[in-house]
Amino acid sequence: MDKVQDNRAWFLIIPVFLIVAFSAILPLMTVVNYSVQEIFGPGQTLFVGTEWFGKVLADDRLHDALFRQIIYSLAVLAIEIPLGIVIALGMPGGRSAKTSLTLVLLALPLLIPFNVVGTIWQIFGRGDIGLAGATFRALGINYNYTSSPLDAWLTVLVMDVWHWTSLVALLAYAGLQSIPPAFYQAAKIDGASKWAVFRYIQLPKMRGVLVIAILLRFMDSFMIYTEPFVLTGGGPGNSTTFLSQYLTQMAVGQFDIGRAAAFSIIYFLIVLLFSFVFYTIITNTGSGEKK
Amino acid sequence: MATIEFDNLGHSYHPRPSSPTDYALRRLSQEWEDGKAYALLGPSGCGKSTLLNIISGLLVPSEGRVLFDGLDVTRCTPEERNIAQVFQFPVIYDTMTVYENLAFPLRNRKVPEADVDRRVRQVAEALDLSADLQKRAQRLTPDAKQKISMGRGLVRSDVAAILFDEPLTVIDPHTKWILRRKLRQIHEEYRLTMIYVTHDQVEALTFADKVAVMYEGAMVQLGTPQELFETPRHTFVGYFIGSPGINLMPCTLGGDQAIVEGITIPLAPGSANGLPNHELPKVGAKFELGIRPEFVELTRSGTAGAIPVQVVAVDDLGTSKLATVRMGSHTLKARVSEDQEIPLDAAIRFPTRWTKLYHDSYLVN
């Protein structure tokens, strides 16, 4: 059959194009525009070229925040992924009331708004009235997330684990449920140990969903803002100030729009780069031809 | 290798079975010989997979015992029974190479690496997998994957039995044929006890020494392919095996004769002797006359003892002809040789040797 040449198809994609343009492309271009200018006020701008980028890259506070951010995201992944898998392995299978109950309980933290999560933990950790804080105090443990950087760090980390491990567990659970029973029966007959079943059946079959879990958790944790903002406000000192909070301080607090725009672009590229590296590593591990 | 014995074996998925229909597998006592190839044949839902899972140890029967070489293994795991099983869909370990896949059951059992290597290469050779040994199993075609699944069963030289659960479902017809022959060869070479579940009569009859036909949870006959063909012990066997299946007509009895719509058909002398007399007056008990199309004699009217029939259709099957005839209200099939002419005034004869009497679907003898 001859191919019909018809340019009217272009009309059909105009709505999508307009939506994407207004929601993503134009704002991004505005940011690019800001990043090369010094902005004094509405209509008063000065072209400065790549000066902001140079300044941002040389900013020590930003280096600290980036370092903190990387450590934080890696800690989140290192805890939540294995923990999520372990929870998924321990969850009941089949269609029973127990399964439904487990799923609902697991999904609960995911349904709570971010700033509410921050507030919950802020109160939870308070030494005077918080359940955890008061308990620690009663046990004689010196715990105070408003004055000790380590306590603040741990609280933010535990809060994230509490909030998001469910997501990993649910994804891993979905991966496990898709394994046909014959695989377990065959493994039993082949005399495979529990570890071998995990290593050679469950883990390979979960790989797809784990890629998604790792990427989601990495991107989300790398851009974390609301919860630490509510819980610690970035303190004590700058100890829990992560990249997005530093960016907000710069843009909204100091109204340093040009510099913040340059920072945004660099931030965006970092997230993109890390995600790409993760994705490439995970999808290539174990799928290459062995020698 | 082991002799497999079923002792009053039965299974019901109901917690309190009351009627025979509650049983997925009805009471069964039997002994299966060591080193033979068996097939479990029947339509879906007939209980063949239930029986297979009981043999393999994936399912504990609700009643009775399973014995391997006289040893009660009813509650043993598949591992303890030392059986191998090949499933309907290929089960392979994606991240391993073909070699590692085949070596897996041996390595789990701490077999010395030199023996592992020897066995793996032997099995790979037998299944034509030698060229793919170092390839990642995930990348192979479905039939190669299924060969790996089979290989993992065959690689253990000491298994009590190898069970196959419709293993050729995913394989294309030509490869199916080759693989089945391969299995047959391996069976003849190693003399393994093999149990093969299928709903395909050709597969069962070409593969097995003995075929167990299952129907509605009951094993209606266990016999060689020839026995199943010549002496079906249940009307279902007659219907399920053979193409087309057996001709069946409701009848009444008069001495050594069956009466079908007023037509008397002689039976082998003493045919009705096997009838359990006390059951005779049972209400609803019915008799049926069965004869395979291959044994119906098609002749000319007027031949001694022949019953005139009306020929409805003749299908030329290339190697033989299949005639459809009407006798009274019954339609019968008769298979005749290619060169035999089918007369207009046709009549049929029922050789007494092949004319079987069934009482409540079971053969009377």
TrEMBL record, chain A:
Domain ABC transmembrane type-1 span(s) in chain numbering: 66-278
Cellular location(s): Cell membrane
Annotated GO biological process: transmembrane transport
GO-annotated cellular components: plasma membrane
Topology term for the membrane: Multi-pass membrane protein
Domain of life: Bacteria
Protein name (Swiss-Prot/TrEMBL): Sugar ABC transporter permease
